[in-house]
């Protein structure tokens, strides 16, 4: 009942006539074929083998569409009514093309699997609602085609992306994730965590005022985040370096820079100076060890070396800020 109120004007699948079911199946196959081609276009440069998989999946959808059109012409003539999935209540939705560029390789593979599963369920339901024997057989055959032994995405994947190729593409995807998000985000987190230590703790010990210290920390963190974000986005468009979208890198760097500084600035919202400072110092060490962990996990830096570089360096900056504040 609530779904009807939230989506007025949509019809249930049960209310569709046999002709409308065929029209819906035709438009759905056409949409899915276009989506698979969009996947192929998005993946072709970095993942040519997976792109080939989606090209063949698109060709398969085109074949299904033609079978459905032939059946419609035979049964109802060549005038196909306009019935699309967005007109039908509870019909699985698809992501628009402009969101595909933001999806990872694994997310695209998973989406293809989900598309096939929903298509299989649709054809089973549609076949059960048709009375014409030939139409029912066609819809049943298409349901089997979408769910034969293993999914089409997996079967084509075994043909065009064998284990060694899939491993290589997964490594490429991981490398791209590191270059686009982890590396600039890590640089921002390091800059925000370390560079704001001195001004925040200098202000804290110089003023003994938690609110003023918080304002210093907030301004330093936000300012550093904006600066790092714009610097990361402006200095490399990613075309030659292969580091990905400058906007994504800029956001990763800017947001992590601001968070790195805010981590030890937020405790100064506590009015008690000693309690706020104790929590802030604890947060600093958590931040520094987190940076060391990320360096070890993604950048393959030996953990002890990363810990020495980050924790020792951060501790020196922290000590400098306290000394300056007490001067």
UniProtKB/TrEMBL annotation:
UniProt membrane topology term: Multi-pass membrane protein
CDD domains (UniProt xref): CCC1_like_1, Ferritin_like_AB
Classification via SUPFAM superfamilies: Ferritin-like
Gene3D superfamilies, sorted: 1.20.1260.10
Record carries keyword Transmembrane: yes
Residue stretches making up the Rubrerythrin diiron-binding domain: 20-156
Keyword Transmembrane applies: yes
Transmembrane segment boundaries: 276-294, 306-325
Major location (coarse): membrane
Keywords: Membrane, Transmembrane, Transmembrane helix
Subcellular location: Endomembrane system
InterPro entries assigned: Ccc1_fam, Ferritin-like, Ferritin-like_SF, Rr_diiron-bd_dom, UCP035918_rubreryth/DUF125
NCBIfam families listed in its UniProt record: FeExpMbfA
Protein name (Swiss-Prot/TrEMBL): Rubrerythrin family protein
Organism encoding this protein: Shinella sedimenti
